[in-house]
């Protein structure tokens, strides 16, 4: 017999539901949200401080992981050759440290938000000089964050849509060796951190997802460590990849022996939003998180910030927005409940359950030791 309270609880939306709590129950390591440093917000014409925002980000039941959306990129960390600056990145790292959040670190070698001195037509790089630049950058940045990252996005967005390599200063000068060099260097600097290849539009089977498989194999064949593939997951509400497509792709990467994570999930829609587009968005979030929970290789989900006013989407895709899980007034999107539902309904595979048990045992053991 169900008492009136049970019935009421079943009818209520998951008002007090919390993302990270459900993610862990479903066998994931974390549900995370990326965040920018307040200085960056100010530069974008936003206020620097939002108490409600800070409280949600620091609520361990809601988020178990974070990523700096900008502060660790080359433009900020090595704005001039040999001059390193970790001010912006450190702000997010200290939030993670103070609140016991896992940190996914992002991104070491990327053609975008690159310091102008690297991507400069007059620079005249040779394979030797550019290799030295990559080694110096990767080594210094990783050294600074040593022990503070669960994972590093070592190479970001090296592929074009057709699966060939994207034209970048790195590829022009070094060919695919730049990828090998970046990973080889990263593994030397901090052997214990997970090294990821990260990209977008690689969440469903396509020439680009085959390109990812090629990169992973290339590194493995050369004996170079790669631990993970990051699916950025920048989706459009009206045409997201399906649940099955995402599961198939995660399994294909997983078959290579690497782990997988959604690293920058957001689902944009035309603004102003309407009921239909919000429903599409909820379905897209449900399928992405559902795929992660169901496919064994997937270990966690990070959304690219959680609060709409801080999303990159309206700046990059004019006319689109409302891509995250909290509206401007801090009410939650319907997609929030859809995400919880995907995790609640998870039929967790025996393998994930084993991992979950192992993690719980380890946590209990370390609690005993303290
Ligand atoms: C975005 C940031 O969110 C913006 O603030 C910035 O202006 C541009 O970059 N893929 C990535 C992220 O790997 O680093 C990008 O982040 C979004 C696309």
TrEMBL record:
Entries under InterPro entries matching the protein: GH, GH10, GH10_dom
Residue ranges occupied by any GH10 domain in the UniProt entry: 40-342
Tagged with keyword Hydrolase: yes
Enzyme class: hydrolase
Pathway: Glycan degradation; xylan degradation
Catalytic activity reported: Endohydrolysis of (1->4)-beta-D-xylosidic linkages in xylans
Gene3D superfamilies membership: Glycosidases
Chain coiled-coil ranges: none
Known EC number: 3.2.1.8
Domain of life: Eukaryota
One Pfam family per UniProt: Glyco_hydro_10
UniProtKB keywords: Carbohydrate metabolism, Glycosidase, Hydrolase, Polysaccharide degradation, Secreted, Signal, Xylan degradation
Signal peptide as annotated in the record: 1-17
UniProt-listed SUPFAM superfamilies: (Trans)glycosidases
Compartments reported by the entry: Secreted
Family: Belongs to the glycosyl hydrolase 10 (cellulase F) family.
Protein name: Beta-xylanase
Organism: Apiospora aurea
């Amino acid at each position: 017999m169900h008492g009136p309270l049970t019935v009421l609880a079943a009818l209520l939306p998951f008002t007090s539901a919390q993302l990270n709590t459900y993610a862990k129950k479903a066998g994931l390591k974390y549900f995370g949200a990326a965040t920018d440093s307040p200085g960056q917000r100010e530069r974008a014409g936003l206020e620097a401080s939002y108490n409600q925002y800070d409280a949600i980000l620091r609520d361990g039941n809601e988020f178990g992981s974070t990523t700096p959306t900008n502060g660790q990129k080359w433009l900020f960390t090595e704005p001039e050759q040999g001059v390193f600056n970790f001010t912006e990145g450190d702000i997010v790292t200290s939030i993670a440290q103070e609140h016991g959040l896992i940190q996914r670190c992002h991104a070491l070698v990327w053609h975008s938000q690159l310091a102008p001195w690297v991507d400069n037509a007059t620079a005249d790089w040779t394979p030797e000089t550019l290799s030295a630049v990559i080694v110096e950058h990767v080594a210094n940045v990783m050294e600074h964050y040593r022990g503070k990252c669960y994972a590093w996005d070592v190479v970001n967005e090296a592929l074009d849509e057709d699966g060939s390599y994207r034209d970048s200063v790195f590829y022009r000068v070094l060919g695919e060796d730049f990828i090998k060099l970046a990973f080889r260097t990263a593994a030397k600097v901090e052997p214990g951190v997970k090294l990821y290849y990260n990209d977008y539009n690689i969440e469903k089977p396509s020439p680009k997802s085959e390109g990812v498989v090629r990169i992973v194999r290339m590194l493995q064949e050369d004996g170079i460590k790669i631990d993970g593939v990051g699916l950025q997951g920048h989706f459009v509400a009206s045409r997201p990849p399906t649940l099955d497509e995402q599961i198939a792709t995660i399994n294909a990467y997983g078959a290579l022996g690497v782990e997988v994570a959604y690293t920058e999930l957001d689902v944009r829609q035309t603004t102003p939003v309407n009921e239909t587009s919000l429903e599409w968005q909820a379905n897209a979030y449900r399928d992405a998180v559902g795929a992660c929970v169901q496919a064994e290789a997937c270990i966690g989900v990070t959304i690219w910030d959680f609060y709409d006013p801080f999303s990159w989407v309206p700046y990059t895709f004019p006319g689109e927005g409302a891509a995250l899980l909290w509206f401007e007034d801090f009410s939650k999107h319907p997609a929030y409940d859809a995400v919880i539902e995907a995790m609640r309904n998870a039929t967790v595979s025996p393998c994930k359950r084993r991992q979950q048990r192992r993690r719980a045992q380890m946590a209990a053991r370390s609690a005993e030791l303290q």
